[in-house]
Fold this protein.
Amino acid sequence: MNMQFKQETFRDDYTYTNSAEAIRRFPFPFAEDEYMYSVNIEMHGEGTGAAGSVFEHSIDVDEHYIAECEDRRIVLDEDPDRYTALPHMMDAQWDMVELMMDSLSKDYPEQFQLQKDGDNWHWVNKPLGIDQTFVFGDEATLPMQPFEYISRQVQGDWIILDQRDDDLFADMGMVTSQADWSMAFDAGMSFKEWHGPVPQANEIGIFDRALKYLLHLQYGSPVRRLNWTMTINPRLDTSPENYPLWGPDNTSVTPENVGDKVHLRVELQALFRLPRSNAIAFSVRGYLISLNELITYPRWGKRLHRVLKQLHPDLSEYKGLDNYRQTVIDFLAPMDDGADLGLGTHPE
């Protein structure tokens, strides 16, 4: 696979765009004309997704890889606390090195290579120009902590959940592209504490069921789900810490700029049981698509129109859509002819 990596920005001049291929493989999240939180978990990893889709491999790499890694570097230079690892998580750090290096080198051998001679490992990341030999399990042989080292080389955020006392605790994370939540604030929280602010889902028992399921997650059987929100401008870092930089954008949407400014932001959330630590790796890979890109598939435009029209007010407020939701609905309305779209997320 000869992947072409784009040079683009997720801040300042916002040069991010999606190629036609990236639009085609975008993980559109709405299978029906209305939306309510659900667990919606399915199996993840090899053999569970169509060839070429974002679900094909355990860890997706696409045309935005280099630009996203650069945006992560910028965030960490400004705020190193976006990386957190409590002291007892060292086994989990090495679990993550193994998971990420094994996955990338197996699924994208043209870009990533890994050679193992016992504990002596040789890692090559061609897109980022990295060539590293190290001793697996010996932190001193890497330039930084193991999890920070490898999580700077993947797209999306990663939160590692330690399992104890029949609960899961957010004890480690690399979080530089979150949708308005803070790893520094959530570090050490239990599963339900972490998800406490989500409206409606707690009332209908979503997180009780999810926690019970995840406590029994098996090694070698990862799972995934999709979540979504919307973002003004293609900005990855919409963290509470930087709210003054992006919050005002929510009032900048007009009928004239809505197609370019408003982006559907879909999170592919995958969960992996780790072998040494018994922790769970929770990946949150974000995909951005502008409304103008999305409506190149009319079926998606129609469905998003219906979802937003019927969205529960509590969810609209929680997702931060209230300032511009009606403008988006008005933008999409002319293309919705009321036709039956059937079930499914496929574009046409």
About this structure: The chain is about 30% helix and 20% strand. The beta strands are 42-43, 83-85, 112-117, 120-125, 130-135, 157-164, 167-174, 223-232, 262-273, 280-290.
